[in-house]
Design brief:
It is a single chain. The protein contains seven helices and 18 strands. The protein is of the alpha+beta class. It has a single domain, classed as Jelly Rolls (Sandwich). Strands 1-2-14-11-16-9-6-3 form an eight-stranded mixed β-sheet. A four-stranded antiparallel β-sheet has the order 10-15-12-13, with no helix packed on it. The chain has a two-stranded antiparallel ribbon with strand order 4-5. A hairpin with a 6-residue loop joins strand 12 and strand 13. Helix 3 crosses helix 5. Bound molecules: 2-oxoglutaric acid. The site of 2-oxoglutaric acid has 11 residues, from strand 9, strand 11, strand 15 and strand 16. InterPro entries: DIOX_N, IPNS-like_FE2OG_OXY, IPNS-like_sf, Oxoglu/Fe-dep_dioxygenase_dom.
Length: 346
């Protein structure tokens, strides 16, 4: 067993099991009907709705994202994380700006075994200057790109444009699966605050004690994840709470609904906990795209989905302030639970 800094060590109950359950994978959905039969999507819509309800997670194939574009961003990410630390630290995240490189993120107050590089999809993005509810000041945030690796920005821009197209296709299919008009949710994204992360998980000498990312739920609308061919993502199965390892499917993207969909759907589509296990031999890379609405969005159960029998289960909350509060908590590493949608439960 190798030595690791105690900051990385998970409490006993959160440590990964020596043998993850691989038997049943999350649903695999073929998106080719979007191209082949755009006028008869009912089968696809049912598949997506079932996956959102039963798992909160699914993988998609035939999604229309060119493999070349994905290979290019994966290769640029590998080059970035292979740079010397001093070079990566030239684009470090700082107190005022959460975008850029960071190697000491904590999830639930335990350090993750990873390095990340974050950027916003729109540049600059506008978000509240502080988490204080009464403070109405806004600020602009700009991305930071490494000067010594111009291909990183180019590859990320191309891949992000593809992620955006896929995100809106999925958003429309999920809206249909909830019985809504397909463009019902599109208006929330005019000034979207979506972001992308490059994750790098180095080999770990004590993978049974640590996690690449601790257990968490995604706060946004939906997440599209590209993982390489090294397994690591584990999803908490809704039926029995077991951690299920998601087997990599070449060229597929993994989709999950986030907290905002849980609130919009009034608990029909739950945001599901997930985490990342690491291993002692292989490094692993992944690229999540987090679809977020504009900062001025008030998140609440959609009026078409509530009625007297199924009243709203959440109070509304402001997305910009929610994110600002979460960022503040992460930065200060407060020894209290981070802001969660459960705090808005009625
Ligand atoms: O690397 C993965 O498979 C998942 C990453 C993740 O959950 C995150 O970055 O929030």
């Amino acid at each position: 067993m190798g030595e690791v800094d105690p900051a990385f060590i998970q409490a006993l109950e959160h440590r990964p099991k020596p043998h993850s359950i691989e038997a049943q994978n999350i649903p695999l959905i073929d998106l080719s009907p979007l191209i082949k039969h755009p006028d008869s999507l009912s089968g696809l819509v049912v598949e997506i709705g079932d996956a959102c309800q039963n798992w909160g997670f699914f993988q998609v194939i035939n999604h229309g994202v060119p493999s070349k574009c994905r290979q290019k961003v994966e290769s640029a990410a590998r080059k970035f994380f292979a740079l010397p630390k001093e070079e990566k630290r030239k684009v470090s995240r700082d107190e005022g700006n959460p975008f850029g490189y960071y190697d000491s993120e904590h999830t639930k107050n335990v350090r993750d075994w990873k390095e990340v590089f974050d950027f916003a999809v729109q540049n600059p993005i506008i978000i509240p200057a502080s988490h204080e509810p009464a403070d109405m000041e806004m600020k602009e945030l700009f991305n930071k790109w490494p000067e010594s690796l111009p291909e990183l920005r180019e590859a990320c821009d191309e891949h992000t444009a593809e992620m955006e197209k896929l995100a809106f296709k999925l958003l429309e299919l999920i809206a249909l699966s909830l019985g809504l008009p397909k463009d019902r949710l599109n208006g929330f994204f005019k000034d979207q605050t979506s972001r992308v992360r490059l994750n790098y998980y180095p080999p770990c000498p004590a993978p049974h004690l640590t996690l690449g990312v601790g257990r968490h739920k995604d706060t946004g609308v939906l997440t599209i994840l590209a993982q390489d061919n090294v397994a690591g993502l584990e999803v908490k199965r809704k039926t029995d709470g077991q951690w299920i390892l998601v087997k990599p499917t070449p060229d597929a993207y993994i989709i999950n609904v986030g907290d905002i969909f849980q609130v919009w759907s009034n608990d029909k589509y739950e945001s599901v906990e997930h985490r990342v296990v690491v291993n002692s031999e292989k490094e692993r890379f992944s690229i999540p795209y987090f679809l977020y609405p504009s900062h001025y969005t008030w998140v609440e159960p959609l009026e078409e989905l509530i009625n007297e029998q199924n009243p709203a289960r959440f109070k509304r909350y402001n997305w910009g302030k929610f994110r600002a509060t979460r960022n503040y908590g992460n930065l200060k590493k407060l020894n209290v639970e981070n802001i969660q949608i459960s705090h808005f439960r009625i």
